[in-house]
Amino acid sequence: RVNVSLLEGVVAEVKEPCSLPMLSVDMENKENGSVGVKNSMENGRPPDPADWAVMDVVNYFRTAGFEEQASAFQEQEIDGKSLLLMTRNDVLTGLQLKLGPALKIYEYHVKPLQTKHLKNNSS
């Protein structure tokens, strides 16, 4: 026989909300009525790439599936500000990467990060 009051105590403990210091909740209602939750850190990186350290850039590309190529960003000391300044030519030739991965890195990652950064900081 299980002691029910003991189980209720455990369940009550589990139901207690966890407080995560890096998670800030923005309770403003969106147009569609949903509540937005803003994470002040995305996968351990600051949300704005301009604030990324070299290892944040490296980990971003590792997470994106470019394990082999990520080390080139570390060797060239590319931090977030440098990443946002990179041209297509920089990525294709300056990092000494194979052409295929370099094209994908620029088109699907560097360019969108630059566009998003400009959009978020042009208001």
From TrEMBL:
One GO term under biological process is:
negative regulation of DNA-templated transcription
Q: Which organism is it from?
A: Propithecus coquereli (Coquerel's sifaka)
Protein name as it appears in the record: Sterile alpha motif domain containing 13
Q: Which domain of life is it from?
A: Eukaryota
Q: Which gene encodes it?
A: SAMD13
Domain SAM, first and last residues per copy = 52-100
Q: Which SUPFAM superfamilies would you find in this protein's record?
A: SAM/Pointed domain (SSF47769)
The protein's matches in InterPro entries, at most eight in alphabetical order, are given as: PcG_chromatin_remod_factors, SAM, SAM/pointed_sf
Question: Quick one: a GO cellular component term?
Answer: nucleus
Q: Which GO molecular-function terms appear in the entry?
A: chromatin binding; histone binding
